[in-house]
Amino acid sequence: MASYVLPFAESTIPKGGEFGNKAAPRTNAHRGVDFSVAGGTVIKSISDGKVVKNTWSTVLGWVVVVEDTKGIFWGYCHMREASKLILGTKVYAGKSVIGRVGNTGSASRGAHLHLTCGSGIEAVFSGWVQDPIACAKRLNAKEKPVAKVVEKPAVEAEAEEAKPVAAKSVPTNLKKKVK
Q1: Angle, CA of 22, 25 and 30, to the nearest 5°
Q2: Are 43 and 100 in contact (CB under 8 A)?
Q3: Fewer CB near the last or first residue (10 Å), C or N of the chain?
Q4: SS3 (DSSP) at 73
Q5: Tell me: the pLDDT tens digits for 31-87?
Q6: CA–CA gap between residue 159 and residue 147 (Å, rounded)
Q7: What are the helix (H) ranges across the chain?
C-alpha cells in the first residue's frame, strides 16, 4: 500500500502560495503550492516512487520529478542545487531526501519549495496539473509535524553552564599568577 507524507506542514504555505492563486506578480494561476521554509532545509519525498527527471529549468530552477506507485508525477522545484539522485532511484515517503530548499529559477522570489503534481513528467513544467495538497489529502497523506524546539533537561543545561570557558583574550591587569 502506498503511503504519502507532506514534505512540510500546511501551515508553512503562505498567503499567495496556494494552488490556483492569481495574485500579483503572477499573470497565470499558480501551478503548485509554495512551502515557505528556510533555505537549505532538507526536502523529503511525499511518496514512494522513483526519480524520472532531475534537471535545470530557467523558470523553476533545479527540479526533481518523482513518479509515485500510482502513476502521479510530483515536481520539487527551486531547489538550492542539483539533486544527487539519478534517474530510476527509488524513493520512500517521508524518508528519502530529494534535495534542499532553495531560491533558483526566474519564478522564485525567496527560498521555498514549489511542489506540483500532474499526470505526466512534463505536467510539472507545462500542461495539466492538480492541487498537490488536495491530491495528497485524497491519498490520505500524513502531515509532517511542525518542528518543535526541544529544550535541554535542566541537569544537562546546568552542567553546560558550569563548564569552564577559555578566554580569548584577558587584559594583563586581570590575569592572576598561578603558583
Answers
A1: 35
A2: yes
A3: C
A4: strand
A5: 788 898 999 999 999 999 999 999 999 999 999 999 999 999 999 999 999 999 999
A6: 26
A7: 132-138, 154-162
Chain length of the chain:
179
For residue 31, the 8-state DSSP code is -
Topology given in CATH for the domain delimited by 10-138: Glucose Permease (Domain IIA) (2.70.70)
Query: Which residues contact residue 69 at a Cβ distance below 8 angstroms, ignoring those fewer than 6 apart?
Result: 2, 47, 48, 49
Give CA–CA dist 34/152, Å, rounded: 33
Kindly state the DSSP code that residue 124 receives in the 8-state scheme. Answer: G
Three-state DSSP at 134 gives helix
The grid coordinates listed for 33 are 503550492
